[in-house]
Write a structure and sequence with these properties.
single chain; about 80% helix; mainly alpha
Length: about 150
């Protein structure tokens, strides 16, 4: 997990794995959205739920890796990027990610409540909230890939 990754940079393997996943995340989310557009709601539900759960797993892998390797402090020392810029960029990234994951959790919970439990959801516009979640997670993913670039490739 802490050995050199597969992208050929100084990043550890967990960072390469997480970065690859988040680079693909907007496409995974979009594939699920296409299922809803095609009225394949059961497949849409399953794809989005699996993507949500896999995303949570990837966040846990990332957090464990960073905590056990003193990640950020080590990575920023070896990076060619301004530390103040990186700190501001990282804070914005974390805020967008946190807001997006909270909204995504609400969306998933309401979908489970409505489609699997037959109860009335507390989110009235699933589609509108889904668009916010898609935008937020896409921005989060793009910023995460940029963070990898700044820390290991710049």
């Amino acid at each position: 997990m802490f050995s050199q990754g597969f992208f050929g940079t100084s990043a550890p393997v967990y960072m390469d794995l997480v970065t690859l996943y988040f680079a693909l995340l907007p496409f995974l989310l979009f594939a699920g959205i296409v299922m809803a557009i095609r009225k394949k709601f059961d497949l849409h539900y399953k794809m989005q739920l699996c993507t949500f759960l896999l995303t949570l797993v990837m966040v846990v892998v990332f957090e464990i890796g960073v905590r056990f390797s003193d990640g950020y402090s080590v990575f920023i020392k070896n990076a060619n990027v301004d530390a103040d810029f990186m700190l501001v960029f990282l804070l914005i990234h974390v805020l967008i990610a946190l807001a997006s994951v909270v909204l995504w959790s609400i969306l998933v919970y309401s979908a489970i409540k409505e489609f699997k439990l037959g109860a009335t959801p507390f989110v009235k516009s699933h589609k509108k909230l889904g668009m916010y979640v898609y935008a937020g997670m896409s921005i989060t993913s793009f910023m995460g890939v940029l963070i990898y670039y700044f820390l290991f490739m710049y």
